[in-house]
Write a structure and sequence with these properties.
By secondary structure, this protein is mainly α. Helices cover 91% and strands 0% of the residues.
Length: 235
């Protein structure tokens, strides 16, 4: 039963690594992930996501604490005098200690990867939202520029046709509309710059997350290699 439990935890860790690698694929855009996250199936799961998150955190925390307890238990067993005089019992205790250390690394990385996955999903959704806002601001800026150009052309045509010194009511109305359009254009450009800066900040944060993930994967590989070498030496 215990072996099945730790096999399940190891499988869950491999699944987490696979999902994180898929989320980091460069050719899948954040907007496409956003469409997937907004699908009906994901929305149904998302309604209970806080329950799933808390339950998984509780389970992983319990197995992590259990692995620490087992490591301490077998460390103390190796220090006993009787085991040092009994070679077979000492080897058995060392094997159990190695398994406890392996379970410690597996449960620890599984717990840590769960937080990484949650962070990746949050950052991907935020990036997709900012990209959508940026595109909307760009379209709005183009529309405002086109409207301002039309008003300028109308104002130029009207001023060429009217040679009187006093402005007509129509010219005043066009001038007011032109001023308002210019203000809207300035406001839209400011919003666009803000959206672009926010998007750049999210991209930098995502790059930092990617670098941290790569570093953790290298440490995980080194720990697995060290555990493998320790097992080989003990055998």
């Amino acid at each position: 039963m215990v072996g099945i439990l730790w096999s399940g935890i190891a499988g869950y860790l491999y699944a987490e690594i696979t999902i994180a690698a898929i989320l980091l694929l460069p050719f899948i855009s954040a907007q496409r992930w956003q469409k997937i996250f907004r699908s009906n199936l994901i929305k149904k799961i998302e309604s209970y996501s806080h329950i799933y998150f808390n339950v998984l955190i509780a389970i992983l925390s319990l197995v992590f604490l259990e692995s620490i307890r087992e490591m301490r238990k077998y460390n103390e067993a190796l220090e006993e005098v009787d085991l040092k005089n009994n070679r077979e019992s000492e080897l058995a205790a060392q094997v159990k200690l190695f398994r406890a250390q392996r379970n410690f690394y597996i449960s620890g990385f599984a717990l840590f990867m769960w937080f990484i996955l949650k962070r990746l999903v949050t950052q991907t959704s935020k990036q997709a939202h900012l990209e959508a806002e940026c595109e909307a601001s760009q379209k709005q800026a183009k529309q405002a520029s086109a409207a301002a150009q039309i008003l300028l052309d109308q104002a130029d045509n009207t001023s060429n046709k009217k040679k009187e010194d006093n402005d007509t009511e129509e010219e005043k109305s066009l001038a007011q509309q032109l001023d308002k359009t210019k203000e809207d254009l300035v406001k839209t450009k400011i919003d666009l710059k803000k959206a672009v800066s926010d998007l750049e900040a999210v991209r930098k944060q995502a790059e930092g997350t990617n670098r941290e993930y790569d570093r953790l994967m290298k440490e995980h590989s080194k720990l697995q290699q060290t555990a493998g070498e320790t097992s080989s030496k003990k055998e």
